[in-house]
Design goal:
217 residues, alpha/beta, Rossmann fold, five-stranded parallel beta sheet, two-stranded antiparallel sheet, 45% helix, globular
């Protein structure tokens, strides 16, 4: 069995990484793609008081359980299944249930800090950076955190100034130099998404042809 093709999609919070990943998934077909989100691999903070959890630095690489993410990525890449974690962003606790996921020809790994983990980089076949202006990213993050994560405007601003912005400057922005492809403006860049999708579709077509020839021998 051929190993899965790994695409890493990095970029700052609110840059449009998830939008790009989902656009690729829609273009290529959900049956061909596994979508791994680094956000699901935040460390379980159940042993901390809720107030302390709310003030944790979620934008530093140490906030991510990269050991588990790398393990799952390698399992899926080699053709096995993996029990993916489910994270509750309102309470900052990993849920007891997991999401059993089977391998597929394409694996997309998405997150703000995936290029900061060398073990993930060595598994990636293509590295994509979604580059969006800071003000747009902040507006998107505020809207998401208020609507989906029960946050207040004040808490979003406080977190952005305390950890999100400095961690972005230290870890995320420099990682842009590692990328093979840079897509400006995230999900609004239809041309960039289409080119990436076409490249993936061509790879799938080539692998299908090779597999058919191998079976006919």
């Amino acid at each position: 069995m051929n190993q899965s093709f790994i695409i890493g999609i990095c970029g700052g919070t609110g840059s449009g990484k998830t939008t790009v990943a989902r656009a690729i998934l829609e273009a290529v077909g959900a049956g061909e793609v596994v979508f791994l989100q680094q956000d699901s691999y935040y460390r379980n903070l159940a042993d901390m008081p809720l107030d302390a959890r709310n003030h944790a630095n979620f934008d530093h690489p140490d906030a991510i359980d990269n050991d588990l993410l790398v393990e799952h990525l390698r399992l899926l890449k080699s053709g096995n299944t993996a029990e993916l974690p489910i994270y509750d962003f309102r309470t900052h606790v990993r849920r007891e249930e997991t999401a059993r996921t089977v391998t597929k020809p394409i694996i997309i790994v998405e997150g703000i800090l995936i290029f900061a983990e060398p073990r993930l980089l060595t598994e990636m076949d293509i590295k994509v950076f979604v580059d969006t202006p800071d003000d747009i990213r902040f507006i998107r993050r505020m809207g998401r955190d208020i609507a989906e994560r029960g946050r207040t405007v004040e808490s979003v601003v406080e977190q952005y100034l305390a950890t999100v912005r400095p961690m972005h400057q230290q870890f995320v922005e420099p990682s842009k130099r590692i990328a093979d492809i840079i897509i400006p403006e995230g999900g609004h860049n239809a041309v960039g998404i289409e080119l990436l999708s076409v490249m993936i579709q061509r790879r799938l077509a080539r692998e299908s042809t090779v597999n058919q020839k191998a079976r006919s021998v």
